[in-house]
Amino acid sequence: xxxxxxxxxxxxxxxxxxxxxxxxxxxxxxxxxxxxxxxxxxxxxxxxxxxxxxxxxxxxxxxxxxxxxxxxxxxxxxxxxxxxxxxxxxxxxxxxxxxxxxxxxxxxxxxxxxxxxxxxxxxxxxxxxxxxxxxxxxxxxxxxxxxxxxxxxxxxxxxxxxxxxxxxxxxxxxxxxxxxxxxxxxxxxxxxxxxxxxxxxxxxxxxxxxxxxxxxxxxxxxxxxxxxxxxxxxxxxxxxxxxxxxxxxxxxxxxxxxxxxxxxxxxxxxxxxxxxxxxxxxxxxxxxxxxxxxxxxxxxxxxxxxxxxxxxxxxxxxxxx
Length: 321
Hints:
Blueprint lengths: L2 H22 L14 E7 L2 E8 L6 E5 L12 H5 L4 E5 L19 H14 L5 E5 L3 H11 L4 E7 L13 H8 L3 H5 L7 H9 L10 H11 L4 H11 L1 H17 L3 E6 L7 H5 L1 H4 L4 E5 L6 H16 L5
Parallel strand pairs: 3-4, 3-5, 5-6, 6-7, 7-8
Antiparallel strand pairs: 1-2, 2-4
């Protein structure tokens, strides 16, 4: 790795670790939270320390931001200040991601059912009664599972490249589907490239017209966490379990039809994994869903954060309190 990037990463990690560790032993204090001031907190949920970012007025409507692979709540670093002017924004790291604990695979089951159990305990610990969910990538099936269990809590859904339909899955899933159907050692080994820097960086840059908009700390920080001992195998376990989300698609659709939640889909239309057809498909079950496509890739916030924030602010203004 380039020495300049390594040096930059060291500074970045010390900055974030310092902020996180400073909060780790404290009870979160948000009584006097300033709108644009992001707080870095930990809370015990489902037996592990869950790291989360929080900003905005405590008495304002809540937006829960759920990240995806291979990132963490860090992906929302630019969005949170824009939304927290008017909303109470909370962005946790899933187990095994970012600054949330990464228990060994024999101590914690890395499944989407267990992600949801952890996030359920998280929202219960924070006493979140009503909130909108912003779902991205892995955050989508996690968020939709939460919605199935707590339909009365969900005020609205923002899906940013967060898929819930078969037509949204690209051919890029074929090697993973092969592993689902035949989980041999050979098929698992074939997926190891997914957790390499080459693919991590590619996920950020693919489909982006101006790659100078992609901050190097994004893929560099993600790769730092992927390179931890045991992390790669954990990620392959999660990839295998993703099949359970596809099996739940009909239940997600039933939830959409029954409760008709207001839904905004903001989508990078060059996403190599989740196709624009997945965004348009929401209209089958929620006819009033709004779909906005952007000329960018998987991580649309890296190139279109202000535009997406504006759509979210307008959308949030239409939701029930």
